[in-house]
Amino acid sequence: MKKNVFYYFFAALFAVTMFASCSDDDGLNEDPNPGGGTGTGEDSVSVADNFVGEYKGTLDVSVGGASTPLMYQNITISKAGNDSIDLVISNFTFAGAIELGDVTLADCQLSSEDNTTYTFHREEEMTFSNPLVGTCPVTSDVTLFGDSVVVELAIVWNGGIDVNVVYKGVKLKGTEKTEAQITSFTFDSSVDANSVVISQPVINEDNTITFGVSEDADVTALVPTITVSDGATLSPAGGVATDFSDDITYTVVSEDGKTVAEYTVNVPSKLSSWKYSFDEWGTKNGTSTGLVDTQSASWDSPLPLDELASANEGVAALKTPFGGKYEGDYAMTKEENGYSGSAVKLQTLYTNDLLEFIPGSIPAITPASLYTGTFEFSMQTEAAKQLTMTKFGISYDKKPLTFKGVYKYAKGDNYIDGSQEPALENQEGEDRGLILAVLYEASADETLDGTNLKTASNRVLLAQVGGDAGVADTNGEWVNFEISFEPVGDAEYSSDKQYKLAIVCQSSVNGSEFKGAANSTLWVDELEVIGE
C-alpha cells in the first residue's frame, strides 16, 4: 500500500510542479526580465540559436536520500521569447506506469553572466491539489550550456522530507538512430573455458536472457560481453564483473532517446556437463576364447573405459583365422591431430573379401562406432545378430537439453549394399556419418542396441546431427554443432522415471542395415551433453 501512495504522490507532485508556468503571469516571478535584457536589442539572449531542439536524457528522483529507478526521457525546448524558452516533456510516464502526457515549463526567463551558461531560478511556496502533499517549499533551477540542459527541482514535503528531481539531457542532432536492442550477450571465453558458463546466453523473444552454469559455479563475478544497436546506450554497462545471483535488468536506450527497451537476465540455471574431450586414452582387451580368440587382442580406447565403447572387438574377431583373417587396422582409432588435442577416428572397413567359413557370417562392410555403453561379444554366425552386441546407453539422471561437439567427415567412393548375399558393390548412393544422442526409459539391465537404436518405442528425447540423413562430407573441415534435444513423437520426460543416455557416433549412417561406403571416415571431438 505504501508503494502505491508513493507513486501516486509523485504523479500528483509532477503534474502540479511540471505544469506550473515560469512566466510572471502566475504572480510568482516579480522580475519580468531576470536576465537583464530588454527582450529586444543587442543584449537579449538568443535562445533560438543556442538551445532550441530536442534533448535526450535521464530523470532521477530521490526521496529522503533514497533513489528511485532512473528514468530515460526526452524533452523539447522551443523559443518563447528572445530571452525565454518553453520546455516540454512529451508523453511523460513516471515509475513505469503513471502517464502524465505532455508536461510543459512555459516561458522560463533566462539569465547569463558570461553569455555561455544560462540559468533560471525560483524559490516559492507551492500548494498542491493532492491532500497528501499540501503546501511545500519548491526550488526550481534550469541550467543550459552548450548542448546540455539540467533541470532541478528541490521540494520539502510534509515539513521535512526532501524530494529532489534532476533531469540531465544532451541536445540531439536529428540524425540519431531509433533502434534499441541487445544484439548479443556472451561471456568471456576464459570464463567459459573454466567450465563456469556451460550454456551460453540465449536472448528470448520476451526480452529475457537465459544461460546455464555448472552446478558448483560462483556467479557473483561473471563478465558479460554485450553489444547493442548502433548508437544505443546500455545500463548497467557490460564488460565488467557482475553478480548474477539475482535477476538483472539491462536498459537499452536508442541513440535518439525515443526507444527504451529492457532485458532481464534471469538467474542462471545450474546445469550438468557430460563431456568427452578424447585427450586421455587407455587400453581395452578382448574377452572371447575358443574358435574366435580375442583375449590376446588389445586396442586403444578413450577414457573412461567403463563409459565409452566401440565395436573393435568385432574387428579383433575378424582378425582370427575363423573370423576371416582381416589384416587391416581397427575401425575405431586415435587421431592425434584432433580439433583440440586428440580425437576419435571412425572408419568403415571393407570386409567383403574375407574368407567365410559360414556364408553370410561376415558383413560386406564393418562400420566403425563409438558410443556410451558396452560391447558384449558373442559368437554369432548371422551378421544381423551381430548388431545386438552393441549395448547403447548408460544411466543418466538429468534432463538433457543440448548436444554439442565437433566433427569432420569424408565419404568413401565404393557404396556397398551388404543387406543381401552376395553384396552389391559400387551402388548409387552417398554415404554419411551418424552422430546422435538419445535419452530412453530403461531399467538397470535394459539397453538399446544396433537393431532398435532408431526405432525403439521407449525413446524419449533425441538430438541427431543432420537429422535422419546424417552428416555429409565436410571437405576436410571441422564443423561445430550445438543442437537441442527434442521429444520423440509424443514422448514426455518425467523426473520420476529412470533413463539411460546413448551417445552414438558411426562412420556410416545406415551401417545397421549393412549399407555404406568402404573407407568412409568420421572424426569426432569435444562431445558434450548439457542437462538440468
Protein architecture, described:
The two termini are about 40 Å apart. It contains 4 helices and 36 strands. The chain folds into 3 domains: about 1-170, Lipocalin (Beta Barrel); about 185-265, Immunoglobulin-like (Sandwich); about 275-530, BT2081, beta-jelly-roll domain (Jelly Rolls, Sandwich), CATH 2.60.120.890. Strands 11, 12, 14, 15, 16, 17, 21, 22, 28, 32 and 36 form an 11-stranded mixed β-sheet that branches. Strands 1, 2, 3, 4, 5, 6, 7, 8 and 9 form a 9-stranded antiparallel β-sheet that branches. It has helices at about 1-20, 45-50, 190-195, 310-320, and strands at about 55-65, 65, 70-80, 85-95, 100-110, 115-125, 135-145, 150-155, 160-170, 180-185, 195-205, 210-215, 225-230, 235, 250-255, 260-265, 270-275, 280-285, 300, 310, 330-335, 345, 350, 365, 370-375, 390, 395, 400-410, 415, 435-440, 460-465, 480-485, 485, 500-505, 515, 520-530. The chain is mainly beta.
Shape: elongated
Q: Briefly note the structural class of the backbone.
A: mainly beta
The CATH homologous superfamily of the largest domain: BT2081, beta-jelly-roll domain
Helix tally equals: 4
**CATH level 1 class label of the largest domain:** Mainly Beta
Q: Calculate the mean pLDDT score and round it.
A: 85
CATH-scheme architecture of the largest domain: Sandwich
Low-confidence stretches: 1-9, 11-45
Number of strands: 36
Q: How much beta, percentage-wise?
A: 35-45%
**How does the major sheet shape up?**
11 strands, mixed
Number of domains: 3
